[in-house]
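Running this now, will post back.
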Amino acid sequence: MGIELIMRLIKLGLISIVVFSAMIYIFSLFIPSQVRISRAINIGLPRDTLSRYIADMRTWPRWNDMVKQQDSAMGTFGQRSYNGATLKIDVLKATPDSIRTRWQSGTSAPVLSGFNLVQSLSDTTVAQWYFDFRLKWYPWEKFGSIIFDQQLGPAMESSLENLRKNLEHPEYKP
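Update: finished.
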């Protein structure tokens, strides 16, 4: 009788683990496999001026907290790239209305990022900064993506605010 009870408990445990894992997997299917984190700000400059400033990565140490946060900004800033100890950023394409970049952190998959610049009727430009994440089907990746906005959002907001202050008030030093 003792061995039968142990076998039933083991069988119940295995079935419970399989059912629970299947439920988690099915629930993860409702989480999208592509996630975009985005922030925007109005900057009192023409779009072309803002585009040239953002596309020149040598200006990034003055305003971009994301690079400081992820790599201490101790790497080398070139006109179209940044090479640091754990982070590499490349400008893929720069036009007056958008800048596309690729961020590579360590051995993780590259993340595409960019800026969309929309000129209003006045000399104000809306600068939208985004990161696009493509996730695999793994449930832990999809559940982990839920906190991306909370991780990246504050640094993106402070970076955009630094960018605005830096351009509208050149004497500003973050």
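The chain is about 40% helix and 30% strand. More later if anyone needs it.
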